[in-house]
Design goal:
This protein has 322 residues and is α/β, with parallel strands linked by helices. It contains 15 helices and 8 strands. The longest helix is centred in the middle third of the chain and has 22 residues. The protein is globular. The two termini are 37 Å apart.
């Protein structure tokens, strides 16, 4: 993987002294995945509803730039103000593009769907948007990301406090999810330590040799300690902050529900890093019926199996903070 230019490297948050400013999102959650059609937007919308019903103040942000449709999952008409207005400086503050939803304590920032420039923000625009997202005075900012592993998608994923990866219980989707997590990991190496050669160093270590598994990133840390203690400490810090969480969508069988823990175990074995599991959501005809009716799943079919799955995931998500 080639390293990004200096202009492309994002500004990931680093530990710092508490600010005197009170307004700040308590938790930023990003929902990503390998490809489209796996249910990211539907899960994001209904997780936002579930969190708001627990008394939290939530902002859903449609960051599928150029293909925004989160409003449809919420039963909201196409908003007249979107991220395009903020990116293009038609409005000065991100709060000006917040759109109310039918759900108490839940607001929407609709994605930019009306221009190529808005769908591909420049480096400075992206960092400005990231700063403003983190400063929203709410309990949760929930980012619904676009598909794939483009730098814009990975950058928004990496600024979150909690990164979620959605997958289907199918071989191709599992492979795509693995590629997404791996791409996010290497992007993190590049962004947090651009002066080091961590991406290349770890990438070479992971390659199998002589029929044997490659070394894990933690083995690279151990080797570095023998010759450069400070560099080893920097790599250890980068590794320690990377902990994605998986949701399995459209689970039908017992084996489907076991996919999440199996994938997490395999990731730990071959990559040496932790991958958490938040739960599975059932395959359910109620999902497409809700979408066709332009209503949210939790509103249209609150007693469905899929809705129960979403609520379990929301409970597990809340439990991460305890």
């Amino acid at each position: 993987m080639s390293e990004p230019s200096e202009a492309e490297v994002i500004q990931l948050p680093r530990p710092k002294a508490p600010s005197s400013r009170k307004a700040r999102a308590r938790r930023v959650i990003a929902v990503g995945g390998g490809k489209g059609g796996i249910g990211k937007s539907l899960l994001s919308a209904n997780l936002g509803i579930a969190l708001s019903r627990r008394g939290a103040k939530v902002v859903l942000v449609d960051l599928d730039l150029g293909g925004a449709n989160l409003h449809t999952c919420l039963g909201v008409p196409q908003p007249k103000v979107t991220l395009s207005d903020f990116i293009d400086r038609k409005v000065q503050h991100l709060e000006e593009v917040l759109v109310p939803t039918p759900f108490e304590r839940l607001s929407l920032v609709s994605g930019a769907s009306d221009g190529l420039d808005a769908a591909n923000p420049r480096h400075s625009q992206k960092n400005k948007l990231i700063r403003n997202l983190r400063m929203l005075d709410v309990d949760y900012v929930l980012l619904d990301l676009g598909a794939g592993t483009a730098f814009n998608v990975l950058d928004f994923y990496l600024v979150a406090d909690t990164g979620i990866v959605v997958m289907l219980p199918e071989p191709t989707s599992i492979e795509n999810a693995y590629r997404f997590i791996k791409a996010a990991f290497f992007r993190r190496l590049q962004a947090l330590a651009p002066e080091d050669d961590f991406a290349q160093l770890v990438g070479q270590a992971l390659l199998p040799r002589d029929g044997q598994l490659g070394r894990t990133p933690w083995e690279v840390v151990a080797e570095l300690r023998t010759r450069d203690v400070e560099k080893a400490a920097r790599l250890e810090q980068v590794l320690g902050g990377f902990h994605p969480w998986v949701i399995v969508n459209q689970a039908r069988t017992r084996a489907d529900f076991d996919v999440g823990p199996t994938v997490a175990s395999a990731w730990k074995k071959f990559f040496g890093l932790e991958l958490g599991y938040l739960g599975a959501v059932n395959h359910d005809d109620a999902v497409w019926q809700a979408v066709r009716a332009r209503r949210s799943l939790l509103d249209a079919f609150p007693d469905s199996a899929a809705a129960s799955g979403v609520l379990r995931v929301a409970e597990n998500l809340i439990a991460l903070e305890r």
